[in-house]
C-alpha cells in the first residue's frame, strides 16, 4: 500500500483518499482515521462541508469492507445528501460495498428489508420514517455517523434511534461548532475522542476578514465561478477547494486554457481574487487572506459558520433573477435588512435550505415575500405583520382542526406530524396550517373540505411508536389522555 497503510484503511479506500488530495500527514487523517477504523467513538470538529468528512468516511468504509458483515447509517443535512452520496461512491470504488442514498424512504425501505444495504446515507427525517416503518433496525447498526447534527432543524427526530441503538454501536460525529462538542458528545457519543476542537479553556478564534460572500446552492457552486469571473474580471484567480472531488466540474465552468486561473488544494498561491469553493477552516481562511481578495461561497446551512468565521463580510450580488425585479418599498426593504442583520434567522434558513437547492434563492425570497405581503394585506397594513407571522390558511380556503392523540409528553414534535401527513397521508405541505402542540394531544389546521378524510387516514397511524387516534376537533374541552401504568 502507501503511507496510509498504518491507518487501518483498505488499499482501495487509501488510494481514493490520496487521489482526493489527502495525505497521512494531514491532522484530520492522522488523528481521526485510526480511531474510526478501529471502531472507537469520535467527535471531529470540521467546517460544515462534505469534503471534510472524507477521512472519517474512509475509516467507516474500511470497517464495512472488513471480513465481518457490518451495517452503517450516515445522517446529514438534507441539502447535502448529493454531496455525501458522491463522496461515498468515490471512496467505495473498488470495494463490494452496497450504498444507498435516500432522499425519500420508498426505495431505501425495500432495499433495507431485503438486506441489500451496507451504508445508508439519508436525512434525519427520512431515517425517522424508516424506523417507524420498521425498515431500519437501530439495534442492527454497527456504525452511526452524524454529520453536523447541530444544524438539523429537528434533531429530536432521532430520539427513537438513539434509544434503541446498541451500546456497542460505534458513534462518529462531525461538528462545526467547537463550543458545542461537549454537548454533542454527551448526547450522541459519550466518552468519544474529540479531534480538531479547541484546547481546554481556550476561546474560539476571532473572525478574520474582510471577505466577500456569495450565497449559492451546493450544486450550483461551480457555475457560480463563471459569474464571479465576469463580475470581478480579476487579472488572476485562485480557486481553493478542501479536496479534489469537484475539480472536474470546476474545470468545465472556467475558461479553458487561461494561465491566470488556478484550481488548488492546500496552501493557496498569490492571486488578485481567491475564491474559497468550500468553507475554509479559520487557519485556512487566514492563509487565503494573505494571498489576495477572498470570496467565500456560502451554500445553504453554512451561514452561521461563516458568520463566526469571517468579518467584516460584504455580499457579492451575482447576475440572476434579482436583476429582473424592481426595487421594493423602502420601508419593507429596511425591515428585511434589520431581520438579516439581527442574526436570528437560523431557524428560517434551516427550513428553507432544501428550497435553495431546488430553486434560485431569489425566487424563494420572492415567494416568501408574496406570502408575507399577502398576510399583511389580511391585517390591513405591512407594519402590523409580526416578525414570525402565523402561516396563512391552507390554499386560502376555510379550515378545520383535526385532533391527534399524541403530544409533548410522548416526545412528539410538529416535524413528526408534518412528516406523517406529507409522506403517509399524502397531504400537500401547502395544505398544512397551524399545529398546536400540547402535552397530551395536538391540533392540526387543515382544509375543511378534506379534513375528515385526512383524519380518517391519520387515525391508527404510528407516531413516535404510539398508535394515534385522530378525528375532527369539535371544540370544547379535549379528552384526557389515558393514564399510563407505572
Question: Can you describe this structure in just a few lines?
Answer:
The protein is 35% helix and 16% strand. The protein has 486 residues and is of the alpha/beta class.
Describe this entry's structure for a reader.
The longest helix has 19 residues, at 361-379. The protein starts with 10 loop residues before the first helix and ends in a 14-residue tail after the last strand. 38% of the residues are buried. It has 486 residues and is an alpha/beta fold. It has helices at residues 11-19, 27-37, 54-64, 81-92, 105-113, 124-132, 159-164, 181-188, 221-232, 247-253, 282-289, 303-309, 330-342, 346-358, 361-379, 414-423, 451-458, and strands at 42-45, 72-75, 99-102, 119-122, 143-147, 170-175, 193-195, 211-215, 237-240, 261-264, 273-276, 293-298, 313-315, 399-404, 435-437, 442-447, 462-463, 466-467, 470-472. Helix 5 links the parallel strand 3 and strand 4.
Structure classification: alpha/beta
Largest β-sheet summary: 7 strands, parallel
The helix tally amounts to 17
Runs in which pLDDT lies below 50 for 5 or more consecutive residues are 323-328, 379-393, 476-486
Helix content: 25-40%
